[in-house]
Amino acid sequence: MKHKLPIILAGPTASGKTEVALRLARLLGGEIISCDSRQIYKYLNAGTAAPEGAWEGGFYKVDGAIYHLVDFLDPAQSYDVSQFTEAAKEITAAKPDAPFIFAGGTGMYIQSYFTGMDKLPRGDAGLRAELSFLVNQHGKEALHARLAAVDAQSAREIPAGNVQRVMRAMEIYLLTGRPASVLRTGKFSTDISPAKACFVYLNWEKEALNKRIEERSAQILEPMIEETAALLARGYKEDAPGLKSLGYRQAVAVIKGQSGKKEALDSLITLTRRYAKRQRTWFARYRDIYKIDLNSRQDFDPQETARRILRLRGV
Length: 315
Known about the structure:
This protein is α/β, with parallel strands linked by helices. It has 13 helices and eight strands. Helices cover 50% and strands 11% of the residues. Helix 5 packs across helix 8, helix 10 packs across helix 11 (248-255) and helix 10 packs across helix 12 (261-283).
């Protein structure tokens, strides 16, 4: 039935997904499942743009709405798509009649939940440490070269700069003896059927989104530096998984006196724009998706956007 149909609310970083998701939750009396691979971490709310809320009765609540899978993981821990999928399925199975809003920009999380995923080995902490050591000692290009030697297709598809994905492909090969490109079945290329979800994408005009990215980066840099300093003071390592989130390397550089704040801000803006471009590329492949075009700040009314989505869904 349409009133049970989940809503997927996707879009690039800084597109306003959280504001719209919260209004959808209020209008529907629903719950939000965050599809964001960075907002999972505790103590990193500013840099990951996590929704500001509080834990109550075992749930993270934002303005009264339950917001799942945010602010729960220690920054020293890793978390992968299979863990997200398992957790999200447990949440929805516990409340089969509840309206859920899947909100976020991590496309692999969304894809895995709605289309399934390949049976790949879970991450190995010891192996990850060895691969991280290789990167630290010899650089990301050395890791990419090792991948190319055993899995040329994955190496062609994954740029050397995407260390986490290169590391995962290498890890799969070392754990199974088979290339990740052979083990993957193509489920991540399957479209998400309208029968499974009302799939909505906040489609900002490029320059308008860039402006939002600039503004948000300027707002969050100082809190990011404070968050990072607090974690380092507590004994967390610079290469902790949580601190690999966008912009935290720049924050570490400021703290260590290796960079000024102006340089860090410029870098954060550039990196965030590149990330937004990758997100746009990912979501452009879907056919059964409603795009809500936004060309300026004046176009964006979170409440009206939420009502528009409900009309598309058929409430």
